[in-house]
Amino acid sequence: MPLSARDHAAEGARPGRRRVLFAPVPITPTKPLTPSHIKGLLWADVISRATAVLADVDHLHSHTVAVANAQTLGFWAHLDAHHPGLDFSGLDEEHIGSLYVEFQRRRDGGAFGDLSAYHEAVARDGWLHPASSRVLDLWTRRWAELGMRDPGLTARRPPPATADEVLDLLARRGLCIDHRPSGGPVYLDATRHGLPLRQIMSAGRHANYLLGLLRELAPLVGSYDSVVLACDREAVPDYTLLAKVLTDLGAAVTLVGIGRVRLGGDLKSSRHGGWEGRTAAHLAEEFLPRVGPAIYRLGVRLYYIAVLGQGDREPFRPQLLWRCMARAKRLLDRPATGTGADLPEFLARHARPHPHVDPYRLTTALLTRNRPAPGRELLEKVLI
Fold it and tell me: Which domain holds residue 171?
């Protein structure tokens, strides 16, 4: 049966409530959670949890998109070629991350080579290299320490559509230039919106992550009132293209772009290193024994969301993070004045006109002087 954008129905939706699909960009399991990752993940966690008070929210984490890409598969091939037999079970995420930086330096912009065997193993069996399996195990611990809801880090499920089904749908809608019949590549075509062509499948039939995202999202858009995408600002051009394509397929799309965190004045990608000693594991080691879980979880949200903001101008400053821990303690110690009945209206004020709650507006409201203390329900449902 041909795939359409309205073939799938949302499950468990409550009558009368809006249905929101939230799809933040997945992180590749090749490295520790750096300050930029932590920022993006905390923004995503607050968007998902706060919006869920107002609507039925499905938070999509794509295992396939996170691993079935050239960066991750190339790293696995590098490990097998240069570190055969290495036991990853006892390594921490920084050690594995240093091997990822080594891989990127060795590659230095060159081709990834033939990754078809790795891609087939992921597509057929959901296979993971032991290095990435170890990273995901460690990430599960970091998610719990940060008080984030696990969107399915280790869940392995095939996308609801095949690559051919999605490409056929796009071709029918005039959204791709398809040279497969002549053995050529496929380009996503949103030139009607003034955007450049973007290759999503090579002549060798290797798909990039955008096609993986479309395999996840295209069959679902008709089942939701709104689709909220979130990504780091470096991925905004690709996600803008994705949003236009999904809109042409019938979705109402909102895109949230989140800036990275400057480390020593730089905005380098994590593939270049520079995050050593400032990862989620180090944060937990430094703060959790001193302040406890509730203060830690609220403090990191105040810092990475309210203090750093949505942009990328502010550098990482540990002294301000300590101040946010002190502010979190004061907020938690004050008698709550809000009630559970106030929560939906309070959150709705920080959502309008968007389908999702704005984390920055929400957290900065907590830092405003002379504001009533937040109700316990807000803290427990959204912020700790």
Answer: 161-209
Phi and psi at residue 353, to the nearest 5°: -95, 15
What burial letters (b/e) apply to 45-63, b meaning 16+ CB within 10 Å? Answer: bbbbbbbbbbbbbbbbbbb
The letter for the amino acid at 302 is: L
DSSP letter for 207, please.
B
Which of left, alpha, beta for 55 (phi over 0: left; psi -120 to 50: alpha)? beta
Are residues 279 and 327 both part of a single domain?
Answer: yes
Answer whether residue 290 is part of any domain. yes
Whether residues 294 and 186 fall in one domain: no
**Cβ count near 367 (within 10 Å):** 13
CATH of the domain at 250: 3.40.50
Q: Give the largest Cα separation in the chain, rounded.
A: 69
Handedness of CA 234, 61, 278, 145 (dihedral sign): positive
Task: For residues 32 and 146, state if they share a domain.
Answer: yes
pTM of this prediction?
A: 0.92
**From edge to edge, which strands make up the β-sheet containing 186-188?**
176-178, 186-188, 198-201
Q: Is residue 6 part of a domain?
A: no
Pairing verdict, β 186-188 and 198-201: antiparallel
Q: How many CA atoms lie within 13 A of 224 on its CB side?
A: 27
> Using one digit for the tens of pLDDT, what is the confidence trace for 145-176?
999 999 998 888 889 999 999 999 999 999 99
Inside any domain, residue 215 = no
**Kindly report the CA angle at 281 between 279 and 286, in degrees rounded to 5?**
95
Q: Where are the beta strands (DSSP E) in the chain?
A: 19-24, 56-59, 176-178, 186-188, 198-201, 226-232, 253-258
Q: What is the DSSP letter of 193?
A: G
In tens, the pLDDT along 296-344 reads: 999 999 999 999 999 998 889 999 999 999 999 999 998 766 656 689 9
Answer yes or no: do 23 and 80 share one domain: yes
Q: What angle do CA 324, 149, 294 make, to 5 degrees?
A: 35
